[in-house]
Amino acid sequence: MRRLYTWMMRQAESAKAPYALAAVSFAESSFFPIPPDVMLVPMVLADRSKAWRYAALATVASVLGGMAGYAIGYFLLQSIGQPILEFYGYGARMEQALSWFREYGVPILVIKGMTPIPYKLLTIAAGASQMNLVAFAAASVVARALRFFLVAGLLYFFGEPIRDFIEKRLVLVTTLFVVALVGGFIAVKYLL
Fold it and tell me: How far, CA to CA in Å, does 27 sit from each of 33, 89, 118?
């Protein structure tokens, strides 16, 4: 794991960093263990004027990789999907995840897709539950865009001082954002 992390940090500093960011964002959505934030953070800090471009690139590649994860869950759950879920310690909870996805697929994908929970677990479960592909794609775009644009936005506006906060407290940042987002929808629904 440490070697992968070190390789990703080196890639973030290279001229081919956008290609590496796209590859990692794609792979992380279906099987790769390290999130793209490891590359996104130093890339945005190196050139904050490209923050939005990098966030968009990570979003598009992540959603496309999510389609691969969906296909793994839909077509290859036993041969490929289950071993991936077992690797991350989620194999025993698959039945519960499937029932949740069948009932609350889009909200689960949007809310959990913004957090540091391995996105590949969500994409595989969505495919295994045979979630509507259009709903899956739309929820993935929302979740991943919110995640990557939040990180890029914090770095764009606050720069290096926010880096340590993001790296150590990304779960807190995304959780607070999700609570505010869901609270806003609830307030609109019941107050208007």
Answer: 9, 19, 11
Give the DSSP per-residue string, 177-192: HHHHHHHHHHHHHHH-
Residue-wise pLDDT for 47-88, tens only, equals: 899 999 999 999 999 999 999 999 999 999 999 999 998 888
Domain containing 20 equals 2-191
Cβ atoms of 90 and 84 within 8 Å: the answer is no
- The tally of CA atoms less than 13 A away on the side-chain side of residue 163 is 13
b/e map of 41-57 (b: 16 or more CB within 10 Å)? bbbbbeebebbeebbeb
> What are the structure tokens assigned to 9, written together?
């940090």
Angstrom distance (rounded) from CA 97 to CA 125: 7
Six-digit token pair at 65?
A: 């990789």
In whole angstroms, give the CA distance from residue 126 to residue 121. 9
52's enclosing H/E stretch is helix 51-75
